[in-house]
Amino acid sequence: MKPIITVVGSIHMDFYIHLPKLPKEDETVVGYEFKMYPGGKGANQAVAAARLGAKVFFIGRVGSDFLGPMLLENLRSNNVDVSYLTVDQSTHTGVAFILLNSRGENMIAVAPGTDSRVSPDDVDKALPAVKSSQALLLQLEIPMETVVYAARRAWEARSMVVLNPAPARPLPDEAYRYIYAMTPNRVELAMLTQSNFTQNMGLIEVARMARVLVDRGVRCVIVTLGKGGALAVTQDDALHIPAFEVSPVVDTTGAGDVFTAALTVALAEGKSLADACVFANAAAAIKITRFGAQATPTRMEVEELIASRRADVKKLK
Length: 317
Ligand code: RIB
Description:
The protein has helices at 41-51, 67-77, 120-125, 127-132, 144-156, 173-176, 186-192, 203-216, 255-268, 273-287, 299-308; strands spanning 4-8, 12-18, 33-39, 55-63, 80-81, 85-88, 94-100, 106-111, 135-138, 160-163, 181-182, 220-224, 230-233, 238-241, 314-315. The protein is an alpha/beta fold. Helix 2 (67-77) links the parallel strand 4 (55-63) and strand 5. The structure holds alpha-D-ribofuranose (RIB). Alpha-D-ribofuranose is lined by residues 10, 12, 14, 39-41, 44, 96, 108, 110, 141, 253-254, 256-257, 293.
């Protein structure tokens, strides 16, 4: 059965410059070329989930400038339901400036524009969608008040709430109990748990930090580890799911978005946590071989990658 997922979140036009290397502070680096791609963590997750087979509603805002209609049309052409998307004349559509080096690594600066106007009222208007969904998917590029309100309304409706806590900022205590699954990377996890982040942190240490969020009320914390795969931590278990190796890696922008969307689709379909993480790892692996945050794979591409390689899920002692 096709799962129904509502995404409440950001939507941007991404302005990319490809460069040989990322600039340091006060440095100018001359790049190769400029490109525009649809983006925004919320919209990226909506498109990724729709391509993986979910029926998706998107709740968000665009401006009445030239970018708004382009982004709206992009969601429509990806089969995302935009009945609850608002055109807001008060400010500009959200934009992101993305610098991308030849290893696929990036620096991102966002001007949120209409993202910052997404309100609890928008969620109320879309309650029929929220209530009919198996899952609600959230990120942190819209006001925190709206994130917590949407999470509460979905939790009350017994819909599974999944939060991608990016860009990381502190969450009010109340929010944790509404969240079923959370997908921080290690930097976001360290921020949320007020721990120090070090590059060489071992899996046991990462699992210990993730368990702090489980103790606050989150049922599963899935830490994305880039090339290291993912670590799924619950009250009883800590599972390491290795990444699928792919090449060439051209653009890691949006890898966390496709991971979160794929995980949500798989969990909403009733897959086990381990199988959902394998599915999410495969979707993220394919994404990083393509340019643009929404260059996300179809269901068939993900299933083919999984069928072609073994993913050895290991339980941490
Ligand atoms: O996660 C990637 C996204 O972050 C980009 O698409 C950009 O718009 C920013 O929101």
